[in-house]
Amino acid sequence: MTEMTERIAVDWLKKAGLRPTKQRVTLAEYLVGDGQHRHVTAESLFRSVKVEGGSVSLATVYNTLRIFCSASLMQEITVDGSKSYFDTNIHDHPHFYWEDDGSLSDAPTDQLKISHIPEAPTGTEITSVDVIIRLRRMKEKKTK
Question: Which of 8, 19, 40, 121 qualifies as a cystine partner to 45, CB 3.0-4.6 A?
Fold first, then answer.
């Protein structure tokens, strides 16, 4: 990582009121250091750090991602109730879930039209609506 990616990471943490510890800065650099949004799992982020020679445990990655979500720096997107992805784009937007390789990507917001959602049960309020569009690549048909 570079001095610039570190500065971006530190600024990202400070704007949320988080202390820029060494491990937080390391993870933040991978998440936002280049200014691009990311969809990561704890495991994929852990692997990225390890490939670059970083020193952080998988438990620390999980804990830090949860802290980033609590500070509204990221949002957690759960697929099938079992797999969590963490998104640096915190604005409401739909996602494509690619079943073939288990990846998550942004879907075009301007193409999504929701005209009506059910009313919340008495005593509750809707806090968000998550839209995950599941995709599978079609197998090519063989021609004779």
Answer: 40
If one counts every other C-beta atom within 10 angstroms of the C-beta of residue 35, the result is: 8
Q: State the amino acid at position 97 in one-letter form.
A: Y
Residue for token digits 């500070």?
Answer: 71
Residue labelled with tokens 């495991």: 43
- pTM for the whole structure: 0.85
**Whole-angstrom distance, CA of residue 112 vs CA of residue 54:** 39
Taking only the tens place, the pLDDT of each residue in 100-142 is: 999 999 999 999 999 999 999 999 999 888 899 999 988 877 7
Helix residue ranges, H only, the chain? 3-15, 22-32, 42-51, 58-70
Amino acid at 86: F
Q: Check if the beta carbon of residue 60 is closer than 8 Å to that of residue 50.
A: no
Kindly report the number of other CB atoms within 10 A of residue 85's CB atom: 24
